[in-house]
């Protein structure tokens, strides 16, 4: 069921390679929207079955990751230890129906959006799905429509706080975010806004947190309201939103920035809680891919000692393992499946070698010890296996010569000289026993087999990434609040 994404898309124009190569040029917007709408319906109907399939892992090591985990080298590293990785369905976000409030505010702010599908981005993720096929076929990667649980509400509520929402989070967590907040003013450019390098009184700001992904920027605009009518009986008020050309007063601006930081911190914290809760509901751990989220989880969610499994996974993800770039996804999955016992031995060796790091707090010491263990397993132990294999081959070739002489003598005398044959077979069994004992039972045999499957690579094989820009060309409205400025 982890391949539900292919059950639909394999016969869909979305994964048509000829269309992907030209960013779906020639397909009408109406046809593309219809196809995505069909996929949305299909995906939502599959959620109970996909959830059951992911949860039914029978004690296997499972983890959910963010969209940034869908990286070739990261997935290969994780495959050295984890049984299963659950990734967000990258196509599902494109299926979200038009959001009226977001469209209205986009037009109001001068974004020239026509509501059309971002075809370049869709083609990028379609290619990503195709590249992950071997990992899905190996029952390692599963997809789940994460974004379904975080889509904005149809009606955006307005908030109000006399303390600027400073009380939304415990003081320690609020301090954690405030110390990492980066706020920049926005400069209006054609068809969007650009983040400035500094902060000054204005009507638009971009807010992010140090350690988070660069493209995760919250946009805030400071509107003013004109009251059109009020009804005391129904307790309703009709207002008009206005975005003046003049900047606000410094005190009002400072209060607005502070409030915006508090709201962004709360939204980030809430999303992290939701991600961890979703992972728990899927009988999986949660894998963070940003420094900010990792620190938040470590300091305010899971402050105790790590489990052996969590520590091992975290340590493996810190390893460099450059040879993995030359190991194809198909070969990696084949080795995992065909050498299951050796894979299990290798994982036990990782746990044993890395378990003492659970009690270490110094990141520098952890890094050095991980490097030492990586070298021991993937270099020293692999070299020892190579040496043992050479010795076994030498013994095997010598025995082959003795067996050939014995068999030739038997044929020449036309007798049943089984003694030489039995001796050769017996020694052959001993050689195989040496192979099993000295090679395959070595915990690093799995690593040896992976390294031997690696092919030369170049920087041209690096993962393709979406281009990043400091230009903001569209928004999705998630919340709206009133700003309270204390009287002087």
Element layout with pairings:
Elements: H1 4-9, H2 17-20, H3 29-55, E1 62-65, H4 72-78, E2 84-88, H5 100-108, H6 119-131, H7 133-137, E3 141-144, E4 158-159, H8 171-178, E5 181-189, E6 192-195, E7 204-209, E8 218-221, E9 224-231, E10 236-242, H9 250-281, E11 285-287, H10 291-300, H11 308-316, H12 329-338, H13 340-354, H14 363-413, H15 418-440, H16 445-453, E12 471-472, E13 480-481
Parallel strand pairs: 1-2, 1-11, 2-3, 4-13
Antiparallel strand pairs: 5-6, 5-7, 6-12, 7-8, 9-10
Helix pairs in contact: 12-16, 14-15, 14-16
Provide tags for this entry:
12% strand; 488 residues; five-stranded antiparallel beta sheet; 16 helices; alpha/beta
Query: How many helices in DSSP terms?
Result: 16
User: What distance separates the N and C termini?
Assistant: 62 Å
What is the number of E strands? Answer: 13
Average pLDDT over all residues: 83
Tell me, briefly, the overall form: globular
Poorly predicted tracts of residues: 400-427
Kindly state the percentage of residues in helix. 40-55%
Q: Beta-sheet strand percentage?
A: 5-15%
Rg, alpha carbons: 30 Å
Helix/strand/pairing class, anyone? alpha/beta
Major sheet: arrangement of strands: 8-7-5-6-12
Tell me the major beta sheet: 5 strands, antiparallel
In N-to-C order, the SSE pattern is: HHHEHEHHHEEHEEEEEEHEHHHHHHHEE
Summarize the entry for a quick read:
The chain has 488 residues and is of the alpha/beta class. The protein is 49% helix and 12% strand. The termini are far apart.
């Amino acid at each position: 069921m982890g391949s539900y994404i292919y059950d639909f898309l394999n016969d869909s124009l979305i994964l048509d390679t000829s269309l992907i190569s030209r960013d779906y040029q020639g397909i009408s917007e109406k046809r593309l929207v219809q196809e995505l709408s069909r996929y949305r319906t299909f995906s939502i109907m599959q959620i109970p079955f996909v959830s059951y399939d992911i949860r039914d892992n029978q004690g296997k090591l499972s983890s959910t990751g963010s969209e940034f985990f869908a990286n070739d080298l990261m997935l290969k590293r994780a495959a050295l230890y984890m049984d299963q990785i659950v990734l967000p369905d990258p196509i599902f976000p494109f299926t979200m129906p038009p959001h009226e409030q977001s469209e209205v505010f986009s037009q109001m702010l001068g974004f020239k959006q026509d509501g059309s599908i971002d075809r370049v981005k869709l083609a990028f993720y379609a290619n990503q799905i195709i590249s992950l096929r071997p990992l899905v076929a190996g029952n390692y990667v599963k997809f789940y429509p994460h974004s379904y649980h975080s889509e904005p509400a149809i009606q955006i509520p307005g908030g109000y706080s006399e303390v600027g929402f400073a009380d939304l989070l415990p003081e320690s967590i609020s301090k954690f975010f405030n110390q990492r907040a980066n706020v920049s003013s926005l400069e209006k450019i054609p068809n969007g806004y650009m983040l400035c390098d500094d902060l000054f009184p204005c009507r638009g700001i971009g807010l992010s947190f140090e350690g988070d992904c660069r493209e995760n920027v919250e946009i805030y605009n400071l509107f003013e309201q004109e009251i059109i009518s009020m009804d005391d009986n129904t307790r309703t008020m009709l207002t008009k939103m206005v975005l003046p050309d003049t900047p606000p007063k410094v005190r009002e601006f400072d209060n607005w920035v502070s409030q915006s930081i508090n709201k962004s911190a709360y939204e980030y914290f809430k999303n992290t809680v939701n991600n961890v809760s979703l992972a728990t509901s899927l009988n999986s751990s949660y894998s963070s891919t940003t420094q900010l989220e990792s620190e938040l989880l470590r300091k305010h969610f899971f402050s105790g000692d790590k489990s052996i499994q969590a520590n091992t996974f975290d340590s493996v993800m810190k390893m460099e393992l450059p040879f993995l770039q030359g190991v194809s996804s198909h070969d990696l999955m084949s080795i995992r499946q065909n050498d299951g016992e050796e894979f299990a031995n290798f994982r036990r060796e990782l746990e044993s070698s890395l378990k003492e790091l659970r009690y270490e707090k110094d990141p520098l010491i952890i890094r050095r010890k991980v490097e030492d263990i990586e070298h021991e397993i993937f270099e020293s132990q692999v070299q020892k296996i190579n040496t043992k294999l050479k010795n076994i081959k030498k013994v095997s070739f010598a025995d082959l010569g003795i067996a050939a002489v014995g068999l030739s003598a038997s044929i020449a005398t036309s007798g049943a000289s089984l003694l030489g044959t039995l001796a050769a077979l017996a020694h052959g069994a001993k050689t195989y026993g040496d192979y099993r004992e000295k090679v395959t039972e070595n915990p690093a045999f799995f690593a040896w087999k992976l390294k031997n499957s690696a092919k030369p690579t170049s920087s041209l094989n690096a993962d393709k990434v979406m281009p990043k820009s400091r230009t903001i060309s569209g928004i999705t409205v998630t919340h709206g609040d009133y700003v309270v400025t204390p009287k002087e």
